[in-house]
Write a structure and sequence with these properties.
The chain contains 8 helices and 13 strands. The protein has about 270 residues and is α/β, with parallel strands linked by helices. β10 (about 170-175), α5 and β11 (about 200-210) form a beta-alpha-beta unit. α3 runs parallel beside α4 (about 155-165).
Length: about 270
C-alpha cells in the first residue's frame, strides 16, 4: 500500500495487498448474458484499433456467434461509421438497447446517443469512464457469445475503468511497424500484466503494401519488429495486415461487413479457444 493511499481503489492503479482484483467488477444488466469479453487496445492512436475490432467482430459473426461491440473510445467513436449506422439507440425504463448492424452485430457507442454525430465530446476523464461503465451495466445486450470492446488509445482512466469494472477475458494489442511503437506496445503489455489480463494476440496493422504487379511486400514504414516483441512477451498469436485501400474504402462507406480477407483467421481461433 502506498503511504499516500486514500483507500479509493476506483481511482488507483497500484497493485497492492489491499486490492481485491474482483471487488470492483460490475455486473452487466440483468437481461444481459455475455460469455466472453475481449478488449482491443493500442498504446497510441491512429494504428487501426477500431478497424481490427470491427474485422474480428464481423468474422465472429460469420461463424454464427452472437457478437457485440462496445465502443469505449468515447471521444473518438468510429465504430458506427464503419458499419454504416447513423440512427439512435433507444431505451426504456429498464435500460438502453444496442443498435444492430445488417448482419446482426449489436453495437453501443456514444455516437448512437448524440443528436448530432459530429458534435465533439468535451468531457473530463471521470465522466468518460463513467459512461463506459454504464455501457456495461445499463445496456440490454441480451445473449452474447463474444463481445469486443474498442478501447481508447493509451493507458489512462478509461482503460483502468474497463479492466477494473468489466471481466475482460483477454486483450488484442494493435500496433504499427514504427520503432517508437515497439516501446509503446510494451507499455500496453505491461499494463495488461499489472491488471492481470492475458494478452491473447498482437496485430501489426499497415505492416506492408503488396505490389499490384508482382505481389512483393513493400515495407513502407520500415522493417517489422512485431515478431520480436511477441516473442519477448510470450505472445503466440501474431497477425500482419497490409495497407489495403479497399479496407479503408469499406470503412468510409460503412460496408466493413462486406470485407474479404483472411489475415485474422488464426487470431480469431486463438480468441475463441
Amino acid at each position: 500500500m502506498s503511504e499516500n493511499c486514500d483507500h479509493n481503489c476506483g481511482s488507483c492503479s497500484q497493485n497492492c495487498s489491499e486490492r481485491d482484483p474482483k471487488s470492483l467488477l460490475e455486473k452487466p444488466h440483468e437481461l444481459s448474458h455475455i460469455k466472453k469479453v475481449i478488449g482491443v487496445v493500442s498504446g497510441k492512436g491512429g494504428v487501426g484499433k477500431s478497424l481490427i475490432t470491427s474485422l474480428l467482430a464481423v468474422m465472429a459473426r460469420r461463424q454464427g456467434l452472437k457478437t457485440a461491440i462496445m465502443d469505449a473510445d468515447i471521444t473518438g467513436p468510429s465504430i458506427p461509421k464503419a458499419f454504416g449506422l447513423h440512427g439512435r439507440a433507444e431505451g426504456t425504463n429498464e435500460g438502453f438497447f444496442p443498435v444492430s448492424t445488417q448482419t446482426g452485430i449489436n453495437i453501443m457507442s456514444l455516437n448512437l446517443l448524440m443528436d448530432n454525430e459530429t458534435d465533439p465530446v468535451v468531457w473530463r476523464g471521470p465522466l468518460i469512464a463513467g459512461t463506459v461503465k454504464q455501457f456495461w451495466t445499463d445496456v440490454i445486450w441480451g445473449d452474447v457469445d463474444c463481445m469486443f470492446i474498442d478501447m481508447p488509445p493509451g493507458t489512462g482512466d478509461v482503460a483502468l475503468t474497463v479492466f477494473q469494472s468489466i471481466p475482460v477475458d483477454g486483450l488484442i494489442i494493435v500496433t504499427s511497424p514504427q520503432e517508437l511503437v515497439g516501446m509503446i506496445v510494451e507499455k500496453a503489455v505491461n499494463m495488461a500484466a499489472l491488471m492481470h489480463v492475458p494478452v491473447l494476440g498482437l496485430v501489426e496493422n499497415m505492416s506492408y503494401v503488396p505490389c499490384p504487379d508482382c505481389g512483393k511486400k513493400i515495407n513502407v514504414f520500415g522493417e517489422s519488429h512485431v515478431d520480436e516483441i511477441a516473442k519477448k512477451h510470450g505472445i503466440h498469436a501474431v497477425a500482419k495486415l497490409p495497407l489495403d485501400p479497399k479496407l479503408a474504402s469499406a470503412c468510409d462507406k460503412g460496408e466493413i461487413e462486406q470485407f474479404d480477407g483472411h489475415w485474422l483467421d488464426d487470431m480469431l481461433k486463438t480468441i475463441l479457444g
